[in-house]
Amino acid sequence: QVQLVESGGGLVQAGGSLRLSCAASGRTFSNYAMGWFRQAPGKGREFVATLRWSSGSTSYADSVKGRFTISKDNAKNTVSLQMNSLKPEDTAVYYCTLDHRGNGEYDYWGQGTQVTVSS
Q1: Taking CA 45 as the corner, what is the angle to CA 100 and CA 101, rounded to the nearest 5 degrees?
Q2: Residues 6+ apart with CB under 8 A from 38
Q3: How far does Cα 1 stand from its chain's mean position?
Q4: Pairing mode, strands 33-39 and 45-52
Q5: Which pLDDT tens digit goes with each residue over 18-45?
Q6: d(CA 6, CA 21)
Q7: pLDDT tens figures, 50-87
Q8: Do the beta carbons of residue 116 and residue 11 sit within 8 Å?
Q9: What is residue 64's three-state secondary structure?
């Protein structure tokens, strides 16, 4: 089984930055992807970014392109989300996710970490 442990959430002023990290442990897979989703109050979960572990290929939601960067640390088996130029609308619970088959289905989820951006 896989466990995802997130850290880095908090309160930041608009225009500021935060970095979220997610450590994965347990079973490894051959073609997996990791990503981030978020859920704002009163809204459904929204795709933020994803990274294919083997190739390093990334993709981003339009709403965060140019502001957020997803990256990996192979040695530590962690994925991070660097969030810059934060906006109040970025306020949400952010979830680290694992797509263990690399097919777009995120099978494992972290507990979520709160990001609050004040205006």
Answers
A1: 10
A2: 45, 46, 48, 90, 92, 93, 94, 95, 115
A3: 20
A4: antiparallel
A5: 999 999 988 777 899 999 999 999 999 9
A6: 6
A7: 999 999 999 999 999 999 999 999 888 899 999 999 99
A8: yes
A9: coil
Q: Which residues pair with 47 in a beta bridge?
A: 37
Tell me the sheet residues that pair with 16: none
Distance CA 118, CA 90 (A): 10
Among candidate residues 115, 49, 45, the one with its CA nearest the CA of residue 87: 115
Is 33 buried (19+), middle (13-18) or exposed (0-12) by CB count in 10 A? buried
Can you read off the two tokens belonging to residue 85?
């130029």
**Within 10 Å of residue 46's Cβ, how many Cβ atoms?**
14
